[in-house]
Amino acid sequence: MSRRLLALALPLAALLGPGPRALGDEAEDLRNDAWRAAGTSAGALVLEALVARVKTPECRICSAGKIDESVRDALRWSDTAAAQRTSDVLANLAIPALALGDAYRSTSSWGNFGRDVLVVTEAASLTTLSTTIAKAGFARRRPGVPPGSTSSSDNHSLWSGHSSFAFSVVVAQAMQDTLRGDDAAPWAWAIGLTLAGTVGYLRIAGQAHWLTDVLAGAAVGSGFGVAVPLLEKRLVHGVTLSAAPGGIALHF
Q1: Are 165 and 127 in contact (CB under 8 A)?
Q2: How confident is the model at residue 185 (pLDDT cuts 50, 70, 90)?
Q3: pTM for this entry
Q4: Are 44 and 7 in contact (CB under 8 A)?
Q5: Strands (E), the chain
Q6: Per the structure, how many domains does the chain have?
Q7: Which residue of 55, 99, 205, 214 has the fewest CB atoms within a 10 Å radius of its CB?
Q8: CATH code where residue 90 lies
């Protein structure tokens, strides 16, 4: 639930007013971007709610491979609930807060800060939507589910929503730092990916997901985290191509 509220709250906050530092065209541009991000987030959340109503009491992928099982056995905590709670806090609170802090640090105006937040919101919303669709479609059995259980959430293992969300946030923000030429971008990548990787580890330790669920979630979240900033016209309006030894070079 916290991820859904975050996806709507961030673009709506930008719509309410860009603040005293955003003046003239910058304020208007930010509002336009906020409307687009709010529309994307709202549309994604509506579709997610519709897909989530599809019940999957029967698993389609009911077993795991030997690698998944061996990794689960090696990483599983004795207190699986504690691992799951820690992953909740890290993915839903700590990582978004750090992304906001990095956006504020690396930008020079309210408009640029707001745009960073909106791009991250779009990446996270699209990731969340794709994750919901995948969970209903694959209907993979979670580890540790007792035999005979008919809860639909028990068959929503593939792929990990916590992992995909965490990677989409950290990669989208770090990508924007890189596109801006921020000297601290390598730190954003290193810290962000470490924290997102920790979320994935905790999902396995909490027996909520298999290793392959976490890897798939990380790949999808990272994909959206890279693609959305690159497609954001305000970040790539200066992209040019030039000849280079053996091919072409892309300049930001």
Answers
A1: yes
A2: very high
A3: 0.79
A4: yes
A5: 240-244, 247-251
A6: 1
A7: 55
A8: 1.20.144
